[in-house]
C-alpha cells in the first residue's frame, strides 16, 4: 500500500537518468528516494552511471579496437590479408548495402528462418498441448521424442538435402526441425507445471475441460512456452546459416562461404558481422515478447504465501 | 439433526461416508482403504454461519470437497436445497487457504472470473457489467481502487480479500471456506474475521468455515461442529451464543467466549491426542497449530 507514495517521490526527481532506471527504482522504492537531492549527489550519480556504461561497453570497445589495430600493427603481413581491419570490413559492408546485395541475402535468410520458425512454433505448441494433456500419448511418444531431440539437427542436414533437394524446402524444413524441440519441450513443461490449486479453484466454479484449458492452463503456460520460442529463434538462425553454407544460391550463409571462396575476405567478415547483429536483434525482440507475456510473473520474491 | 420437520435445510448431509484407497507403499504393498468420513449427518439452515473444527486428518477438507461437488460420497447423500449435489455449481463458492488467485489476471479480472460465459441461469454479463460487478465486490471487501493490481502486488490479506470477492461476485448462496485465514499473520487474520462477519451480515450467505483454530471457530460460528480424529465422525455440535458481535468490544475476553472456547477445547483435546498418536499433528493440544500464532491468551485464565 505504501508503494504509490514512494514512487511519486522518485518521479519528481529532475534527473533524466532516473527515467531509464525507473523500472528498478519502482521495485525498490526504499533505496531510491535519498538520491538526487543535491547537485553534488546528482553529479556523483551521473559519473557513476557513466562509469558503469563505459565499463559495460568496455569489452566490446576493446575487441573492436583490437580488430582495427591488431591486423595492421601486430599481425604479420600474410595474416592481414585474411584478417582485414575493422574499417575495411565496414567499407565492404557499406558497398554490399549500397548495391543491394546484402539486402537480398538478408531477405532470403529471413524468409527461410521465419517460415521454418513459424511452422515449428505452430506445430510444436499444438503437439505439446496434446502430449501434456493426454498422458497416454506422452508415454507413447516420449521415447521417440527423446531420440530426435538428442540428435543434432545439423547431423540430419545431409538427409534433408538428399530427400528434399538443395532448394528452399530442405532449408525451411531443417530450420523447422531445429526450432521444433525447444518449443515442444517448453510447452509440455508449461502445461505440466500449472498450479493444481488453480485447477481445483476453476473446477469448483464448474468449468468444463475446454474452459479449464482455455482460461487456466493455457494462460499459465504462456510464459514457459515463450521461453521455448525464444530459444527456438536463436537456434533457427544458427542452423539456417549452416544449411546455407552447404548448398544455396542466396542467403547470409551463402554470402559468407561464397566470399571466402572468391577471396573477397572483407565481404566474408561483413556477412559474419550481419549474422551476429541479426542474432542479437532477434534475441532482443523475442526477450521483449517473452517479458511482455510474463509480466505477472515478475515479482518472484512476493510470490510466497 | 433430524430432518422431516420444518422447512428444508439449506444444506443437508445424510449419513456420509467417504473412503480413500491409499497408494501401495513399501511398508504397505497392497495399499489400504482409509475411512476419511464415517456416518456424518448435519443440517445447516439458510443464512447460518457454521464452523468446523477437528484434528488433522479428521476429513475436514474432504467434507468441503463433497459439498463443493469436487468428489462424491461412497454412501449417503449431500443435499443442497433438498436436491442432491451432482457436481460443482455456482450456487456454492469455495475460498481456499492459499487464495488460488490467477496470477496473470488483475484483481478485477480475478473477481469477474466466475461471471464469464453463460451462468447457470442462462444470463451473460457484458464486459462492462463484469467490470462494474468486480468494482462493487472489491469495494465490499475493502479493496476499492485496487482493481488493476496483479496478485503479486498484493499482500496475503489483500489476496484473500480478492479471493473472497471473487467467490461472492457470482452470487452463490453458500460460501465454503477451507482454513482461509490460516496463512495470514495474527493481526490481519483478526481484521478479516471481523470483516467476514460484516460481509455475512450484509449478504446473508450460508457459510461453512473450516478451521483448526478454536478461537476462530468460536468467534465466527453460530455453531461449532467438532469432528473426531480419523475416521471423521461428528462428535458434537456446540451452540455459540455471544450476543450481537458488532462494535469494537473485545469479544474474545468475554466470559461467555472463554466458556465456549473451553468447551470446544475439551471436546477436541482427546481427539487431538489420538490424532497425534496416529502420527498426524497439525493441531496442538491447546488448540493452536504450529503455523498459527495465538492472538490472545485469555483462554488460560479460564
Write the layout of secondary structure elements.
The complex is a heterodimer of chains A (305) and B (302).
Chain A: H1 3-11, H2 17-20, H3 22-27, H4 39-73, H5 77-82, H6 86-98, H7 101-133, H8 135-149, H9 157-164, H10 168-192, H11 196-204, H12 209-246, H13 252-261, H14 265-293
Helix pairs in contact in A: 6-14, 7-8, 7-10, 7-12, 7-13, 9-10, 10-12, 12-13, 12-14, 13-14
Chain B: E1 11-22, E2 32-44, E3 49-53, H1 60-68, E4 75-80, E5 83-84, E6 92-95, H2 107-111, H3 127-140, H4 156-169, E7 174-178, H5 186-203, E8 206-210, H6 214-220, E9 223-227, E10 234-239, H7 255-277
Report on the architecture of this protein.
The complex is a heterodimer of chains A (305) and B (302). Chain A is mainly alpha-helical and 305 residues long. Chain B is an alpha/beta fold. Helix content of chain B is 30%, strand content 21%. Chain B is built from 7 helices and 10 strands. Chain B is globular, with a radius of gyration of 20 Å. The C terminus of chain B is likely disordered. The chains are: A mainly alpha (305), B alpha/beta (302). Chains A and B meet through helix 11 and helix 12 of A and strand 6 of B.
Strand content of chain A: under 5%
Mean pLDDT of chain B: 78
Oligomeric state as shown: heterodimer
Report, as a whole number of angstroms, the end-to-end distance of chain A.
18 Å
**Distance N to C terminus of chain B:** 30 Å
Largest sheet: number of strands, sense, barrel closure of chain B: 6 strands, mixed
Helix content of chain B: 25-40%
Given the structure, what is the number of helices of chain A? 14
DSSP, total strands of chain B: 10
What coarse outline of chain B follows from CA principal-axis ratios? Answer: globular
**Greatest interface and its participating residue counts:** A-B, 25 and 31 residues
Q: What is the helix content of chain A? A: over 70%
User: C-alpha Rg of chain A, in Å?
Assistant: 25 Å
> Spans of chain A with pLDDT under 50 lasting ≥5 residues?
1-36, 299-305
Structural category of chain A: mainly alpha
Compressed to H and E, one letter per element, the order of chain B equals: EEEHEEEHHHEHEHEEH
